[in-house]
Amino acid sequence: MDRRSFLKNTAIGGSAAAATALAAPAYAQGKRTLTLVTTWGRGLAGVHDSAQRCADMITAMTDGNLTVDLKAAGELVGAFEVFDAVTAGQADMYHGADYYFVGQHPGYAFFTAVPFGMTAQELVNWYYHDGGHELHDELGQIFGLKSFLAGNTGAQAGGWFAKEINSPEDFQGLKFRMPGLGGQALGKLGASVQNLPGSEVYQALASGAIDGTEWIGPWADEKAGFQEITKIYYTAGFHEPGAGLSLAFNREVFESLTPSQQKVCEIAAGEAHQHNLSQFLSENGAALQRLQSGGVTIREFPDAVWDAFGAASQQVIDENIGDPLFKKIYDSAMVSMRSSSGWIQKSTGAYVAQRDRVLG
């Protein structure tokens, strides 16, 4: 895509000219400062941590020859404006959840999560060994981006509700926050789906602007304070079984880096991914216990609701499968997922079941 055409045809184009000083990395005695914008409010548990870790590692591993200046959501551009800001050259890179940008292309959902999609382990198997990274790059070339996985929340919770969900009909008219293709699937069940940045979710839930929300999982949800508003928590969700986060560079900026600097950025993103995944998984168990001790009621959706989730999710896939690149990404991801799952279930899955039985 021609960047001049993009600037002319996007809302951010008018502000990009005023931000010329940010359009190219700042130089000082051979050193460069790169501006990183994020979809996260400063301090949001886990997700902001991953963005900050990427910034700090790139700065440290280049001995400060690249200094990454992190701007949290709202400090330079809004949470959902980071994609356009980097494509237009207003910022050098973003850290975020790529499923926020399915409006640019629905294929971006696969690099965060899709309903009934890949777990965190299955996602990295696909990404690093079965063509996922190459497809992320092919998609990015359309928009002038160079992207890497750079975080993962693990399996996300079904969410917080003002009332119990006993049947698919309970979603009719429910005002619920859920981004990505999962949100589109809930819309098929009659929900009024809201796509809110993380920093706005608590206030929306507290004010009644929404009836419920998914966010991440016990640790991040506890930090956000949702248990102060409602005590009904569904711990398994269909929408994000292993949500990846991305570090995406303006492609011209990335290509202007030296080969060693490019490799540092790639390594920093990969390390941040693994550190972030283990951070979430190590914190979630204890946080869940604290939530339960504080009066939160843990629930699981009944089978009829899961079946409705599945049917609605397939409708969403079918509506997008006509796009050739979406289909290419979908086919690749599903082949990899089924291959990985077959072994994981027979090895790790069988072991964990026996371990829990033996140890009680």
Q: How would you describe the overall organization of this protein?
A:
This protein has 360 residues and is of the alpha/beta class. The chain has helices at residues 3-8, 13-16, 20-23, 47-61, 82-88, 120-129, 132-143, 180-188, 198-207, 218-224, 251-256, 259-293, 303-320, 324-359, and strands at 26-28, 31-38, 66-71, 93-96, 145-152, 159-161, 175-177, 192-194, 212-213, 232-234, 244-250, 297-299. The chain starts with a helix and ends with a helix. It folds into 2 domains: 12-151 and 242-281, Bacterial extracellular solute-binding protein, family 7 (D-Maltodextrin-Binding Protein, domain 2, 3-Layer(aba) Sandwich), CATH 3.40.190; 159-240 and 283-320, Periplasmic binding protein-like II (D-Maltodextrin-Binding Protein, domain 2, 3-Layer(aba) Sandwich). The longest helix has 36 residues, at 324-359. Helix 10 (218-224) crosses helix 12. Strands 1, 2, 3, 4, 5 and 11 form a 6-stranded mixed beta sheet that branches. The protein is globular, with a radius of gyration of 20 Å.
Question: Can I get a quick summary?
Answer:
This protein is of the alpha/beta class.
Set out the fold topology.
Blueprint (H helix, E strand, L loop, with lengths): L2 H6 L4 H4 L3 H4 L2 E3 L2 E8 L8 H15 L4 E6 L10 H7 L4 E4 L23 H10 L2 H12 L1 E8 L6 E3 L13 E3 L2 H9 L3 E3 L3 H10 L4 E2 L4 H7 L7 E3 L9 E7 H6 L2 H35 L3 E3 L3 H18 L3 H36 L1
Parallel strand pairs: 2-3, 2-4, 7-8, 7-9, 10-12
Antiparallel strand pairs: 1-2, 4-11, 5-11, 6-9, 6-10
Helix pairs in contact: 4-12, 6-14, 8-13, 10-12
